[in-house]
Structure formats: C-alpha cells, structure tokens
Specification:
The complex is a heterodimer of chains A (about 80) and B (about 170). The longest helix of chain A is centred in the last third of the chain and has 29 residues. Chain A is an all-alpha fold. In chain A, helix 1 crosses helix 2. In chain A, about 55% of the residues lie in helices and about 0% in strands. Chain A contains 2 helices and no strands. Chain B is mostly helical and about 170 residues long. Chain B has one domain. Helices cover about 50% and strands about 10% of the residues of chain B. Chain B has 6 helices and 4 strands, in the order E-H-H-H-H-H-E-E-H-E. In chain B, the strands form 2 sheets. In chain B, strands 1-4 form a two-stranded antiparallel sheet. The chains are: A mainly alpha (about 80), B mainly alpha (about 170).
C-alpha cells in the first residue's frame, strides 16, 4: 500500500524526488491516455462544444485496444 | 453533392511565427491565430502532462546523458525541457581524482544533508519519462497544427466551422 502521507512529509520535495507509486504505476496510464485523446481531439474537432464527449470516446477506445493488445500478448507469451 | 456540402480548402501556407510561438509556449500559436479557447486547452494539456511527469519521476526523468533519445522528444515541449536537462547535468557534475565525472547521488545516511535530487528507478521513472516525452510529442503535433491552421477572423467566430477555411462545391447553375 502506498503511503500517501509521504506527500505531506517534508522529506518529499516535489519535482526533485519521485513519487512512491511503484505498486500503482498502471493507474498512471489513465491520465496519459486522457491527455493524448484531449490534445488530438482539440486539434481535430471543429466545434469545441463536442470536445468532452469525443475525448471520452477516444480515451475509452484507446484503453479498450490497449487491453485487447495486452490480452493478445499475454496469450502469445503464456500458451504459444 | 448538394449545394450545402462543403470540403476543407486545400490552400496551405506555412506560418513560421505561430509555430515558433507554439514551441515557446504550447498553444500560443493557436492563440495568435485567434483560436484562444483551443490554445488554452492545449497549453493546459501539454504543460499539465509535462509537469505531472516531473512530479511522478522527479527531475531525473529529464536526462540528456542516460536518456538522450527521450530527452530529444522532451525538448519539443519548449524551453523548460532543455533548461531542466541542463540543470540536471550540472547537478550530476562532479570530480574524482581531479577528473570531471558525472556522479549519481546515493541515498543520504542519517544526519547527512539530502542530495539535490533523488534518482528515480523502475516503473515510476519509466512513467515519468513517458509523460514528459509524450508531452513533447503532443506539442510537436500542436506546433505542426499552428504551422498550417488558418487565421480565425473576427467574422468567423460565430461560424460553426470554427474558423476553418471552407469552400462550397457543387453549386447548382
């Protein structure tokens, strides 16, 4: 379990020391995917009022395909 | 095609100024071209991702010595990346037997002053590096967009096409 109190401790210096997220690194892929989708859709969408919906849709699409690719690679490495 | 259908104009003129501005500050190129809201979103997204990566992995993720290819990608984010890379290298610079070397700081022992930064390792380092490099790559897209995006005139602002140049095709005689 990550010790979140670490963030409040004076020992941790933002931008100089890494965050203790070794056990939860996979969650960091979610904001990364969201920002990639947001930037892409901000550049491609003409009407920015549709941006949140389109960004969300692209984020989910990327995540689904990453999960499918991960599943495929798992199958290949485990059983082939 | 009906008379109402439109297709994007094929006119392309390179705009070096907005593209350079986009490197100095992500989204500034779009703002100069009149797409202020778009520019603000891009600024927040690119810098948000870059500084999140720095927060996750620390300054060690900007490493021109051990992660040269990553660093090249990070440099597209703008001046903060080369500035941080230079600072990082300066902090590593040391001397052994009178010879200049780069020294990776060890974790401090009790009573010792902490080093200028802590070396990040493992997935946290990889993810921090990936965040910062993706921010650079995304800003490259933003710069290329500013290079070719048409200027949005005042009269275009109520336009549902968001100021894109369009030409009407298939007009009926």
């Amino acid at each position: 379990m990550t010790d979140w109190f670490f963030l409040l401790s004076p020992a941790w210096r933002p931008f100089l020391d890494p965050l203790p997220l070794h056990e939860h690194w996979m969650w960091l892929l979610l904001p990364l995917t969201l920002v990639i989708a947001l930037v892409y859709k901000t550049l491609k969408t003409e009407d920015l009022s549709k941006l949140p919906g389109q960004t969300l849709r692209l984020t989910v699409t990327i995540l689904v395909f990453m999960a499918v690719a991960a599943g495929g690679l798992l199958l290949i490495t485990r059983w082939l | 095609m009906s008379s109402q259908e439109t297709k994007p104009s094929t006119t392309t003129t390179m705009q070096i100024g907005p593209a350079l501005a986009g490197w100095l500050l992500p989204g500034l190129g779009q703002m100069i071209l009149g797409h202020k809201k778009r520019g603000v979103i891009l600024f927040l997204a690119v810098y948000g991702l870059f500084f999140s990566g720095l927060m996750v992995g620390g300054i060690d993720v900007i490493d021109p010595l051990q992660g040269r290819l990553w660093f090249i990608g990070q440099c597209f984010v703008g001046p903060p990346a080369p500035a941080l890379g230079y600072t990082h290298v300066e902090w590593l610079r040391g001397e052994v037997d009178g010879k200049p070397v780069y020294i990776i700081p060890d974790p401090p022992e009790e009573g010792q002053a902490p080093p200028k930064f802590t070396k990040s390792v493992g997935r946290v380092h990889e993810l921090g590096q990936l965040y910062c490099t993706m921010a650079g790559m995304l800003n490259l897209l933003v710069i290329l967009d500013a290079l070719y995006r048409p200027h949005r005139k005042r009269s275009d602002r109520a336009d549902p096409n968001g100021g894109r140049l369009v030409q009407r095709v298939g007009t009926t005689p």
